[in-house]
Amino acid sequence: MDAKYLEKFDWMARRLEELSIAVAQPDIIADLPRWQSLLRERAALEPAVSAYHDYQKLTGEIADARELSEDPELGETAREELKRLEAQVPPLEQALLLHLIPRDPDDDRNVILEVRAGAGGDEASLFAAMLMRMYLRYAERHGLTAAVLSVNDTEIGGVKEAVLSVTGRGAFSRLKYESGVHRIQRVPVTEANGKKQTSTATVAVLPEMEDVEVDIKPDDLRIDTYRASGHGGQYINRTDSAVRITHLPTGLVVTCQDEKSQLKNREQAMKVLKSRLYDLYRTKADSEYASNRRAQVGTGERNERIRTYNFPQNRVTDHRLTGENKNFNIDAVMNGDLDPIIDALTMQEQAEKLRESSEG
Description:
alpha+beta; eight-stranded mixed β-sheet; three-stranded antiparallel β-sheet; 11 strands; about 45% helix; flat
């Protein structure tokens, strides 16, 4: 392993030792915020340092086996052991290097996922409905809980706009790569002459925020209630249960009509609004790094096409992948099997971040 990486792990090990001593000091324990901050830092370092100790142990065993390989009596056995030990080095080094990659602080959050029909009329709305079903199936595959907060559907079964809540461990870490413009190429069911058409839909994946993390002043909100519309059964049109919240400073508008209770719809709408505001503020804060972010995978630049679903050729192509394998089986993907794409994007992003870390 490169010396510059070993130096970083040496520093981590020293820092962990310092933190372990510090968090036991009475004066630091008495300062609760500082004590909790140091505990979090220690917990973040422990997995990396533990992996580094495993690596040091392995390299020590390799050195011992290499020395014994020259022994007349033990040489043959030592050489066999050396071969076994050296085979463990590459995967251990790869796992170790992953600890150097800066972690997205939002990875463990739940998700607000929005799907909107783009260019293409009815076909775009049908495509948006397909994407919504794809994400619901993906969530089901992974034991995540997905709920439709609001949906604006069409008479032919399409979706103009849908907002989903996806909760569960690692929801954002996986779904964040879905942000962007998705494109479909197929012969639409609405097309009489059999001509292939290209349509688009936009997906936004927002980390869900807690109440304390986004400050919203009551005076900045306009809250309207109205009767829900759509295919919700008899009850949905009887009361003013639907809620529309407008954030006046930014002009952001959120609606929710999924629940029968106006109070619950208001709570869900506020949850979506906080996530959208957080995304807006984060984008502004990151604007100075825009050129770097555009070069990375999964940044959610929504003005760029990220993926094409080509039905005549039975393939899905992710345009962010730079390796040879950019194409995936369309039937599997539309049934929620996104893992091959997400895994490839994750590995590519990790490699890019590791490169940046080594240059920093």
